[in-house]
Specification:
Elements lengths: L1 E3 L2 H9 L5 E6 L5 H13 L2 E6 L9 H6 L4 H11 L3 E3 L3 H4 L18 H4 L3 H16 L3 E5 L3 H14 L4 E5 L19 H6 L2 H11 L6 H12 L5 E10 L15 E9 L2 E8 L2
Parallel strand pairs: 1-4, 2-3, 2-5, 3-4, 5-6
Antiparallel strand pairs: 7-8, 8-9
């Protein structure tokens, strides 16, 4: 496995290889969810590139950026075992030699849910992802479904820029108790880690009632289930059309309805989602 910290090194490393290229963009603090992306990329490409970069332009909270977990040495060991060929661990100056002032228009995709509660977040995601795409020029890029709205944004970005690559969606990986794997989980205090599985449990119970109860009733039930023990606070829970991310008021409004939520667990913000119908 080769490791590069500069754009020049990355390009030389890629130039020495032939065949298809799969890219797995990450912000490090890697877990089994990331490993599943790398393994998927390994099975489908000749060369697997993993970027490890905590992108400052997608953080609207400076404290969140400062506290985001960084474990570069452990990440390298994880990626060696997972089968990555190239690891790109650049500095901010390498990714953004000049300030990125680009502003993207994704219509309503970036105005709801995460976009509504984290202003500028998805514009920052678009900046870094488009930059990585231009540097690596992958045939495929791999993203986890835990960031369901992000996948919609990235697909829209690829379409807008006319890029000839495929976005591969990979299933959420969960702990045995249902908590979606996330780098932020390691920041949870024990009492909040114990409460966090309520998120998935409440959504799973809500999905079992989809089509039996109204959309509004299911939304209320899910929120109540998450907040039942008083430890967790729902920032939002929305039932949306999977294709457009528009909120639904009736189960028949979309071929597939997905429940998406953000939850405050002490000082840590967790997100999760699942298909309801």
């Amino acid at each position: 496995m080769e490791q590069f910290t500069t754009v020049e090194g990355l390009k030389k490393g890629l130039a020495a290889r032939r065949g298809s290229v799969g890219l797995v963009p990450t912000m490090g603090a890697l877990h089994e969810g990331h490993v599943s992306l790398v393994e998927k990329a390994r099975a489908e490409n000749d060369t697997v590139v993993v970027s490890v970069f905590v992108n400052p332009t997608q953080f609207n909270d400076k404290d969140d950026l400062r506290n985001y977990p960084r474990t570069p040495e452990a990440d390298i060991e994880v990626l060696k075992k997972a089968g990555a060929d190239i690891v790109f661990m650049p500095t901010v100056e390498e990714v953004y030699p000049e300030p990125d002032t680009r502003v993207f228009d994704f219509g309503m995709l970036d105005k709801v849910m995460e976009g509504a509660t984290r202003p500028g977040h998805f514009n920052g995601v678009a900046q870094v992802v488009s930059r990585l795409f231009s540097l690596v020029n992958p045939d495929r890029a791999y993203f986890g479904e835990k960031d369901f709205q992000q996948i919609a944004i990235v697909k829209a970005l690829v379409k807008q820029l006319g890029l000839g690559l495929t976005i591969v969606e990979c299933p959420i990986v969960r702990e045995a108790d249902g908590l979606a794997l996330s780098s932020r989980n390691r920041l949870l205090a024990p009492e909040y880690r114990a409460a966090a599985p309520r998120i998935y449990a409440a959504m799973k119970a809500g999905a079992a009632e989809a089509g039996k109860k109204s959309v509004a009733e299911v939304e209320r039930d899910v929120v109540a289930g998450i907040e039942a023990d008083g430890m967790l606070k729902v920032i939002y829970f929305k039932l949306v059309d999977e294709e457009t991310l528009r909120e639904v008021s009736d189960w028949k409004e979309a071929a597939h309805v997905r429940g998406c939520t953000a939850v405050q667990a002490g000082s840590v913000r967790l997100i999760d989602n699942m298909r309801f119908i």
